[in-house]
Description:
Largest sheet: none
Oligomer: single chain
Strand content: under 5%
Number of helices: 4
Radius of gyration: 17 Å
Amino acid sequence: xxxxxxxxxxxxxxxxxxxxxxxxxxxxxxxxxxxxxxxxxxxxxxxxxxxxxxxxxxxxxxxxxxx
Length: 67
């Protein structure tokens, strides 16, 4: 398993006493999915240039204004 949202949901279900996941209601499940989608789809990819600096340098250098 390598998708962050799947791993987070797995951990929430494996350790319910930690109260990491939803409470079983449809609204709470929606809220959890919305936040996981935001974190893994918008926030997480934004860190790629910082974590993989050497891999992104050619891409950054090719952008307009960086030549």
